[in-house]
Design a protein that fits this description.
The structure is a single chain. The chain is mostly beta strands. It contains 1 helix and 17 strands. The strands form 4 sheets. Strands 1, 2, 3, 4, 10, 11, 13, 14 and 16 form a 9-stranded antiparallel beta sheet that branches. A 3-stranded antiparallel beta sheet has the order 5-6-7, with no helix packed on it.
Length: 209
């Protein structure tokens, strides 16, 4: 809560903030200051915040987040292009050519200990599935520590092909009293719009002593 309070206090044009309720996943999607490049998600079940960077911010800009009749999230770009994206953004189309999009998700700060004490981060475990990744799809994992987002204390790039429910475990061996985890990917387009790469992150967990 304190971290998101700092974000809110540093937000200009607070009166332009928009909040949308996602009934499927029971979360609030908050566009602080009317931001059209990212949203902060408040998960009502756990009381946790995460940040969603849409990616390729020169193209993917969501002026409005709306819920359709099937309770799906849609992002609307409010300009002459009238572009619409779902919340699993993987591509966009310009002049009938489809292009891959970098997308990024990150947690809020997760406290591991109290005060100045630190814990040992032993491993990070990732479960995921990919489609049409035969050309190589990169997944980038970063861990930041102790309130410092200027540089990651641990980073890992995974180059994967088509997999289903794959579980990988990585040694971290870093000490921290709080961590923030960021995951990003850069899907590419192979041949045609029916063959764009897709990535599903099913679970991320951290082993801590």
């Amino acid at each position: 809560t304190k971290n998101i309070q700092d974000v809110w206090q540093g937000t200009s044009s607070q009166e332009n903030t928009k909040i949308t309720y996602d009934p499927k996943l029971k979360r609030l999607l908050c566009q602080f200051g009317g931001s059209n490049t990212s949203a902060y998600l408040f998960h009502l079940g756990t009381g946790e915040w995460t940040k969603w960077e849409y990616g390729n911010t020169t193209v993917v800009k969501a002026d409005h987040i709306v819920i359709d009749e099937d309770l799906n999230i849609n992002l609307i770009k409010d300009d002459s292009s009238s572009l619409m994206f779902d919340d699993n953004i993987t591509s966009y189309t310009v002049n009938e050519c489809e292009n891959g999009i970098v997308t990024e998700r990150q947690t809020g700060w997760i406290n591991l200990t109290k005060g100045d004490l630190t814990s040992l981060i032993r491993r990070l475990n990732l479960k995921y599935s990919t489609e049409n990744a035969s050309g190589g799809l990169n997944i980038v994992l970063d861990i930041y520590a102790n309130g410092d987002t200027s540089s990651a204390v641990w980073s890992k790039t995974i180059s994967t092909v088509d997999v289903s429910n794959k579980l990988q475990s990585f040694r971290v061996s870093r000490r921290a009293n709080s961590i923030l985890i960021k995951i990003s990917s850069s899907p590419a387009i192979i041949g045609s719009s029916s063959n764009n790469q897709r990535l599903l992150i099913q679970k991320i967990e951290v082993e801590v002593d």
